[in-house]
Amino acid sequence: MSYYGYMDREMADTLVRTGRGTPMGELLRRYWVPVLLSSEIAEADGPQVRVQVMGEKLIAFRDSEGKPGLLEERCTHRGASLFFARNEEGGLRCAYHGLKFNRAGECVDVPSAPAGSRAQVCERMRTVAYPCLERAGIVWAYLGPKEEQPAPPEVEWCTLPAEHVFVSKRLQESNFLQAMEGGIDTSHVTYVHRYEVDEDPMHRGTKANDYIKADGNVIFEVEENDFGCTLYGRRNGEPDSYYWRITQWLFPWFTLIPPFGEHALGGHVWVPIDDESCWAWSINFRPERPLTREERADMAAGRGIHCEVDPVTFRPLANKYNDYLIDRRAQKEKRSFSGVMGFAMQDASLQESMGAIQDLMREKLLPTDRGIVAARKMLYEAAMGLREGREPPAVDPSRQRVRAAGVLLPRNVKPQAWAKEHIADGLKQPVYSL
Fold it and tell me: Average of pLDDT values for 350-375?
């Protein structure tokens, strides 16, 4: 891949197709997948919900033991949806003919089967089930080969007490790749977010805002490594220093966000629903202390990287069907660069405007896209490598123990050396930007 990024049709298609059996789909299934908020199935034996990830239509529920389960949506008998099933006594009982399935996918009852053959019929009726675990208020599932199941995720916010973390999710109506690439690209902050960084409670009051707004010509240094890549974005700081925003992309869909001043750290997970839509998970966290009531209230109100959503569909209230509530007066008066309000929907409006699947063959990339080029190359090589029998990268969760940062450094100091000492290999004390 060249400096500006080699791309042909086969590579473009491989990167965005995530269904079962595709190279990218098989790669993504080798990692734990965030599938829904724990609060969506809060009650044991409570209502189950529909879930779709990577084109698979599934049903999530919490059984009588309070443990989450994830099954194929269709009953194996006649294909009726288990959304209409009864959640009772350790499993889902299909409303059509009474077949019952536990969270392991075992069929434990076929009322219409002859008594002498019921065990054999139950075995034949087994359904697809995926193992689940819960971390950071999220139900995660593993959709890959059983014998390759990795250890639980250890991205920093997964390992903190609940009171240190705030998680939200929203529907994004674009391919996961173009959504995720917004999380990799730090240069866009200078433009689309420039008027809100001074007002948003999760960003205001920091010297970093001045550097970001003043210098849109970000110089990138990209460091590929065994967890993904680290992106060093350099802007002019003071006369004798550079301001560096150090961010990470972690295999296969995590992005980390440096803090602004002493505000919370952040991150995203970008999970395909199908090839034309994805779940955008947004996380703020404090490694050193619980979030305050005020911080949590701002996040719940859709400030910072979060947004207001429909509580059932998780579609943002500002969306493509209402032109994201664009405010042309705010745009004219420099209260919003694009006229769309809120960080999350400023990004989503532009990413969705590319089309459900951006034609990567038509892009004309710039030097500021070096991080995107690196991530595409690494994803493509990992997907094709898996097809050829090579193990996927970073399935060992210990490789996820890294942290984003923003820092002002003397112009003769290499950010890689500073990062190795302060924010890698064990997650030392939090590092905040100016």
Answer: 92
Residue 3: the pLDDT is 45
By the 8 A CB rule, do 102 and 91 touch? yes
Backbone φ/ψ region at 236: left (φ over 0), alpha (ψ -120 to 50), beta = beta
List beta partners, residue 70: 60, 130
Question: What is the reported pTM?
Answer: 0.93
- Angle between helix axes 176-184 and 9-16 (nearest 10 degrees) is 90
Length of the chain: 434
Gap between the Cα atoms of 159 and 286, Å rounded: 11
pLDDT, one tens digit per residue, over 5-17 is 678 999 999 999 9
Q: What are phi and psi of 267, to 5 degrees?
A: -170, 170
Q: Which is nearest to 265 in space by CA: 313, 218, 305?
A: 305
- Does the CA dihedral 434-294-292-295 come out positive or negative? negative
Query: In the chain, what are the helix, strand and coil shares in percent, each to the nearest 5?
Result: 30, 25, 45
Question: How far does the chain reach from its first CA to its final CA, in angstroms?
Answer: 36
Is 266 in contact with 282 (CB distance < 8 Å)? yes
**In the numeric block, which tokens belong to residue 191?**
């433009």
Q: Which residue has the higher pLDDT, 71 or 337?
A: 71
Rounded distance, CA 280 to CA 176, Å? 8
Cα gap 307→280, rounded to integer Å: 11
Average pLDDT, the chain: 92
**Residue type present at position 339:** G
Q: Would the pLDDT of 190 be above 60?
A: yes
Return the closest-CA partner of residue 36 out of 1, 70, 76: 70
Q: Are strands 49-53 and 32-37 parallel, antiparallel or unpaired?
A: unpaired
pLDDT at 131 over 60: yes
Write the pLDDT tens digit of every residue in 36-77: 999 999 999 999 999 999 999 999 999 999 999 999 999 999
Mean pLDDT to the nearest integer, 338-347 = 93
3-state secondary structure 174-233: CCHHHHHHHHHCCCCHHHHCCCCCCCCCCCCCCCHHHHHHHCCCCEEEEEEECCEEEEEE
Percent of the chain at pLDDT > 70 equals 96
Amino acid at 385: G
Element at 410 (helix H, strand E): strand 405-410
Contact 285, 265 (CB under 8 A): yes
